[in-house]
Amino acid sequence: MFDPREKIALFIDGANLYATSKSLGFDIDYRKLLAAFQKRAYVLRAYYYTAVIEDLEFSSIRPLIDWLDYNGYTVVTKPVKEFTDSQGRRKIKGNMDIELTIDAMSQSEKVDHYVIFSGDGDFTCLLEALQRKGRKVSVVSTMSTQPPMIADDLRRQADYFIDLITLQSEIARHAAETLHKPVQPTSEHVTP
């Protein structure tokens, strides 16, 4: 599936990957995830996309974002949008599909093989466009839950489907490791 000579790029839909790993019962160690793919091929870029709530003094995702930013990932964020639905309930929305799609397309002359961590069927058109440019696309999600976390159209469009559960032994964070330690921009970092 991976050729060690090819240039790959990781595109992580943060909210989707978080939901998928939680549904499988494990947390992801992003240091291990990056290392796992660096063993398979040359990782040109690793992108992580997430929406953040700007008005909170402390966001629970902030330590992870900071760690990723200092440890080999390109982090793309945007503020969530707040709205009130027709029943008067306050809702938040933070879709990162457009940002991920634009970044993926802009890399199409440099990347041989895309690895997209999402089960969102909205990315099916992106896969088609990348494949028309002669690029391979792998999708990482899961079929091991009920219901599956991946849209059927997306799984069928991908050149390769990688069930996240098959990566668990390589990328899982062990219970003793903590996520919310403060991250400082030094040469030593905690593992999320």
Helices and strands in order, then pairings?
Blueprint: E1 7-13, H1 14-24, E2 27-28, H2 30-40, E3 42-52, H3 62-70, E4 74-79, E5 81-84, E6 90-93, H4 97-106, E7 113-117, H5 124-132, E8 136-141, H6 152-157, E9 160-163, H7 168-171, E10 172-173
Outline: globular
β-sheet strand percentage: 25-35%
The CATH class turns out to be Alpha Beta
CATH overall fold name: Rossmann fold
Sheet with the most strands: spatial strand order: 4-3-1-7-8-9
Spell out the CATH superfamily.
5'-nuclease
E-strand count: 10
Rounded to the nearest angstrom, the radius of gyration is 17 Å
* CATH architecture type: 3-Layer(aba) Sandwich
Helices and strands: which structural class? Answer: alpha/beta
**How many DSSP helices?**
7
Mind summarizing the main beta sheet? 6 strands, parallel
What's the average pLDDT? 89
Element-level helix/strand string: EHEHEHEEEHEHEHEHE
Number of spatially distinct domains: 1
Low-confidence spans: pLDDT under 50, at least 5 residues? 178-192
Structure in words:
The chain is an alpha/beta fold. Mean pLDDT is 89; it is low at 178-192. The protein has a single domain, classed as 5'-nuclease (Rossmann fold, 3-Layer(aba) Sandwich), CATH 3.40.50. Strand 5 and strand 6 (90-93) form a beta hairpin. Helix content is 31%, strand content 27%. The longest helix is centred in the first third of the chain and has 11 residues, at 14-24. The chain has helices spanning 14-24, 30-40, 62-70, 97-106, 124-132, 152-157, 168-171; strands spanning 7-13, 27-28, 42-52, 74-79, 81-84, 90-93, 113-117, 136-141, 160-163, 172-173.
